[in-house]
Amino acid sequence: MYNYTTLPPEACNFVAVAESAELSDGERLFVEIDDLPIVVFRIARMLFAIADTCSHDDGPLGDGDLEGYEIICPRHGARFDVRTGKVLRLPAVVDIPAYPVREVEGQIEIGIPKEQE
Ligand code: FES
User: Fold this and answer.
1) Per-residue model confidence as pLDDT tens digits over 15-24
2) CB of 71 sitting under 6 A from ligand 1
3) Which residues are paired to 81 by β-bridges?
């Protein structure tokens, strides 16, 4: 399962990665949690976090163009839904991890599933 956004909060350890003010609407932020590269988007004032690694050839994904909620891999054009990590277009065929994100007291926090640790 790669769509960790559906896990209950107690199944994740939430890690503060930035202040809310650092991520404006329409922007993205690159972070690492325990060597795990993650990109966070704020779209229509909501936050989404996905692995910054394409499932096709492990290329960095976060620099790709965004169309609505679809991120387009800059290497070979695979597409993924940033809300769920679901793969939408070849050449990738495997979903990527999507992580829960929340804002607590002015901090952006990403939930890493405990089963991953
Ligand atoms: S590395 Fe992303 S489509 Fe090939």
Assistant:
1) 999 999 999 9
2) no
3) 70
- Distance from the Cα of residue 68 to its chain's centroid: 15
CA angle 58, 64, 67 (to 5 degrees): 130
**Nearest atom within ligand 1 for CA of residue 74:** 2
If one counts the domains in the chain, the total is 1
- The band of 116, judged by pLDDT with boundaries at 50, 70 and 90, is low
Q: Which residue is closest in CA terms to ligand 1's atom 3?
A: 76
Residue 92 beta carbon below 6 angstroms from any ligand 1 atom: yes
What is residue 100's DSSP assignment? Answer: -
DSSP secondary structure letter of residue 6: G
Q: Cβ(75) to ligand 1 under 6 A? A: yes
**113 touches ligand 1 (CB under 6 Å):** no
Q: Which domain holds residue 57?
A: 4-116
What's the CATH code of the domain at 54? 2.102.10.10
